[in-house]
Amino acid sequence: MNILICDDDKEIVRAISIFLENEGYQVFKAYNGIEAIDLIRDHVIHLIIMDIMMPKMDGITATMKIREDNMIPLIMLSAKSEDHDKILGLNIGADDYMAKPFNPLELVARVKSQLRRYTTFGSLEVDSYVLQTGGLMIDDEQKVITVDKQEVHLTPVQYKILKLLTTNAGRVFTIEEIYEKVWNERAINPENTVSVHIRKIREKIEINPKEPKYLKVVWGVGYKVEKIEKY
User: Fold this and answer.
1) Does domain 122-225 have CATH number 1.10.10.10?
2) Domain 2-119 has CATH 3.40.980.10
């Protein structure tokens, strides 16, 4: 699989490359957002590792441009560790976040985790490729989501959250359950991570995200997708 590393620090790019190449991945290197976008245009990329602070085009701007038409899994890096940076990264389409300095072996583990989720969307057992509740429809074979016949675009993590809840429409999942089923790891303080993704999903599938029709909070418990008869 092909992994794009984008960071203006060439030593960091080189170090990450060594670890990933030892795992059998092919690595593409970029040193600013413009170079990253050009590489994505010219090559098949399966996962992106994107730094935030870079010259010419920063990682936030590059990620927003990539997300306009591409749902490649993306892990964001930043020298800062404040929650603001993490939430900003998740808000604009990152699937995971790591603060520098980080353990390269942990980064490799997160790369593998993201690639597993990206390549095994169909792992949940369903009776049909098509899931539907009201005007919300998920074609799990084509990986297409429509609301009232209008297509909406989600990141891979957002897709899996919505698929999990829609497959079990009417059932309430706790934040911890959502995190452990989607991220496939033990939940430790997952509230911010899950709530950011839930909010972004609502913005895309709801006419009025403040009064959601489909993706609802059950206060003190968790979230659910409302079970609505087909129409």
Assistant:
1) yes
2) no
Element (H, E) at 185: none
Rg (CA), the chain: 18
Encode pLDDT of 41-87 as tens digits.
888 788 999 998 899 998 889 998 888 877 788 999 987 666 676 77
CB burial of 82-120 (b: ≥16 within 10 Å; e: otherwise) equals eeebbebbbebbbbbbbeeeeeeeebbebbebbbebbee
- The ranges of the chain annotated as CATH 3.40.50.2300 are 2-119
Residues found in the chain? 231
The helix/strand count (H/E) of the chain reads as 8, 11
Domain with CATH 1.10.10.10 in the chain: 122-225
pTM, rounded to two decimals: 0.56
Interval 112-126: pLDDT, tens:
988 877 665 433 333
Q: Could you give the dihedral angle defined by the CA atoms of residues 68, 70, 71 and 74, in that order, rounded to the nearest 10 degrees? A: -90
